[in-house]
Automatic annotation (TrEMBL):
Family stated for the protein in its record: Belongs to the thioredoxin family. DsbA subfamily.
Species for this entry: Pseudooceanicola spongiae
Signal peptide location: none
Keyword rRNA-binding tagged: no
Keywords, in A-Z order: Disulfide bond, Membrane, Oxidoreductase, Redox-active center, Signal, Transmembrane, Transmembrane helix
UniProt-recorded name of the protein: Thioredoxin domain-containing protein
All copies of domain Thioredoxin, residue ranges: 33-225
């Protein structure tokens, strides 16, 4: 997915605040991060402390190959990569100690950020399990939704299926500081690695775009030779 052709536009109202009779979006605290993301201006978020954000990692720390994936939970190409490539990658390379895998969230739209708040909820202990659900059910929670309210409620339901309590889900969705920090973290990472589309793969420092498992296997096997 190219950042210039994304749904939802921007990250206004990053955190969802539950209110009587519905919900509203808080935009004030996320405004600076939103402006920076829309403008691609890393300097606007340079002063945001992002050290609290946990890298989501699978595999052995001593693996000979490090692979990083930049992906968005709302990106159909990322969904296809996850559903058709990632599981084989995990079985053949990550679980066998050959590849250390790092997943980095991309927020091209507000819904991807909301989804990440759910996936990273409760310390991120369920992150990769929730990520599986977000990609496998992308059409159900996102594309078949008729409104933003539907999307938010669908994410709540998904979080409950993953074992999160209602109180925990609401606290995570309403965490404006976390939303703003995640937005700044994404901007810094995307700028440093020149990420303009998803999925972007970085394998031992070399950047690649979306590919089939067969193509990925050739690259990994060459790195492991």
């Amino acid at each position: 997915m190219d950042r210039r052709t994304l749904i939802g536009g921007g990250i206004a109202g990053a955190a969802v605040i539950v209110a009587a009779g519905g919900y509203m979006y808080n935009t004030r605290n996320a405004a600076e991060a939103q402006t920076a993301i829309n403008a691609g201006d890393a300097s606007a978020v340079a002063d945001v402390d992002t050290s609290s954000i946990t890298e989501m990692v699978l595999g052995s720390a001593d693996a000979p190959v490090t692979m990083m994936e930049y992906a968005s939970f709302t990106c159909p190409h990322c969904r296809d990569f996850h559903n058709n490539v990632f599981n084989q990658l995990k079985t053949d390379y990550i679980d066998t100690g050959k590849v250390k895998f790092i997943y980095r969230d991309v927020y091209f739209d507000r819904y991807g950020l909301w989804a990440s708040l759910i996936a990273r909820c409760d310390g991120g202990m369920r992150f990769f399990g929730i990520a599986d659900m977000l990609y496998e059910q992308q059409d159900q929670w996102l594309r078949n939704a008729k409104s933003e309210a539907d999307i938010a409620d669908n994410l709540r339901k998904l979080g409950k299926v993953a074992g999160l309590s209602s109180d925990t889900i609401e606290a995570c969705l309403a965490d404006e500081d976390k939303a703003r920090t995640l937005a700044a973290w994404y901007q810094k990472n995307a700028t440093a690695d020149d990420v303009s589309g998803t999925p972007t793969l970085i394998i031992n420092g070399e950047k690649y775009s979306n590919m089939s498992y067969a193509e990925l296997k050739k690259i990994l096997d060459k790195e492991l030779a």
